[in-house]
């Protein structure tokens, strides 16, 4: 079997990947629809760039930016009362790259407070009484609602993949360090990763060609993939819909000739998740310490408690945890050295009811700790009529291969 997919701006399909929409029209549409979803934290009164069409792969594409990432002329409030509202002077590196490819930053999307756990006001577009996930809640919801076809988010634990799962959109978290973080409010230095949401895999590939171009990335070989299936059972049970999504994906891969393996690594998975929690608390505490000390009365109680807990972890413990993290990462790179990608759950099930929590990131944290690229694929509809899907994961720096396999194999379902 032959698989082909785009690898550079020049080789991307010439058919339109994004709808041709005037940014002014997009703003007007958002004004009529966002009262119910509340995906946006800041929008301009008008779209001054609406008449400007810069050439590039993303020419004219309006996009949302998670409100911990700077955009020139827009405030960065981080979903927090403790932050000031003055406009930023410069674009973040990733926004500058997208702008250079012709895309237009439309506004700032809602984030959980400082991209941690306290939710913003955003609701799930498929059912407003349910969470959209977090912390990149506004970005995922804006794409799911069709307000924009591209939005930037970030992940420390599960903040890209979980909202993609709950909102039924394509979500991509690259290899750690692949996207430059200049102009981003960093929460955890060795975990935070910038990613993006789109409605389709070809759109995700187009964004990848701008944010992480790699003309030397080899094309897919003319063979079916070798795939590891990791249900991660030790992390908790899946709902019927999430289990069915895993089974549907596995069946689709088998039908296309994939070789499947089922490694037993639950003990490592449990340890990786435990390490993630400790390392995240240590780094979060030091990243947020100055804010809490200066404006603690404006910071949520969960964040204040997390800072206090993280400061109790000493440097020597952190060094030992990082060493163990690196040892497990080397072990897993060897273990999965001949695997093209891994199929694993994105979330325990459909988006939970209620808006006081962003849901569980238990199936995402180990990949954030390893720094491996992750791609959420919407696969089906669960028992409650909400989206369910799976995440595909690859070894570090196999980003292009992962996206190409997804484009070639096409297992995404009705929310794609």
From TrEMBL:
Record InterPro entries: Amidase, Amidase_dom, AS_sf
Annotated region (Disordered), positions in chain: 1-20, 117-139
Domain Amidase: 48-403
Pfam families per record: Amidase (PF01425)
GO molecular function, one term: catalytic activity
Biased composition (Polar residues): 1-10
Low complexity composition-biased segments: 130-139
Coiled-coil boundaries: none
Transmembrane segment boundaries: none
Protein name per UniProt: Amidase domain-containing protein
Organism expressing this protein natively: Bordetella flabilis
Source lineage: Bacteria, Pseudomonadati, Pseudomonadota, Betaproteobacteria, Burkholderiales
């Amino acid at each position: 079997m032959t698989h082909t997919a785009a690898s550079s701006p020049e080789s991307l399909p010439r058919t339109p990947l994004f709808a041709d929409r005037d940014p002014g029209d997009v703003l007007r549409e958002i004004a009529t629809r966002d009262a119910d979803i509340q995906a946006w934290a800041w929008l301009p009164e008008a779209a001054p760039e609406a008449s400007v069409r810069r050439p590039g792969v993303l020419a004219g594409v309006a996009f949302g930016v998670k409100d911990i990432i700077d955009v020139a002329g827009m405030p960065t409030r981080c979903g927090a009362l403790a932050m000031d509202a003055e406009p930023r002077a410069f674009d973040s590196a990733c926004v500058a790259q997208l702008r250079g490819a012709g895309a237009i930053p439309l506004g700032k999307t809602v984030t959980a407070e400082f991209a941690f756990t306290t939710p913003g006001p955003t609701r799930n577009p498929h059912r407003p009484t349910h969470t959209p996930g977090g912390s990149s809640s506004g970005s995922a919801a804006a794409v799911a609602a069709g307000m924009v076809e591209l939005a930037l988010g970030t992940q420390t634990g599960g903040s890209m993949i979980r909202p993609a799962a709950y909102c039924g959109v394509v979500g991509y978290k690259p290899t750690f360090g692949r996207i430059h973080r200049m102009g981003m409010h960093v929460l955890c230095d060795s975990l935070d990763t910038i990613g993006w949401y789109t409605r389709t895999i070809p759109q995700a590939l187009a964004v990848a060609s701008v944010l992480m171009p790699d003309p030397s990335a080899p094309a897919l070989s003319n063979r079916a993939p070798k795939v590891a299936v990791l249900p991660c059972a030790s992390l908790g049970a899946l709902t019927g819909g999430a289990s069915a999504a895993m089974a549907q994906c596995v069946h689709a891969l088998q039908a296309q000739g994939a070789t499947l393996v089922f490694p037993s690594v639950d003990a490592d998975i449990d340890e990786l998740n435990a390490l993630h929690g400790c390392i995240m608390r240590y780094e979060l505490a030091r990243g947020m310490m100055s804010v809490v000390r200066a404006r603690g009365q404006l910071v949520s109680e969960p964040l204040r408690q997390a800072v206090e807990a993280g400061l109790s972890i000493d440097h020597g413990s952190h060094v030992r945890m990082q060493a163990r993290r690196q040892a497990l990462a080397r072990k897993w790179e060897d273990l999965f050295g001949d695997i093209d990608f891994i199929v694993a759950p994105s979330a325990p099930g459909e988006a939970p009811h209620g808006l006081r929590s962003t849901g569980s990131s238990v199936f995402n944290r180990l990949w954030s700790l390893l720094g491996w690229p992750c791609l959420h694929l919407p696969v089906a509809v669960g028992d409650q009529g909400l989206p369910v899907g799976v995440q595909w994961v690859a070894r570090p720096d196999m980003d292009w291969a992962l996206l190409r396999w997804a484009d070639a194999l096409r297992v995404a379902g009705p929310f794609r």
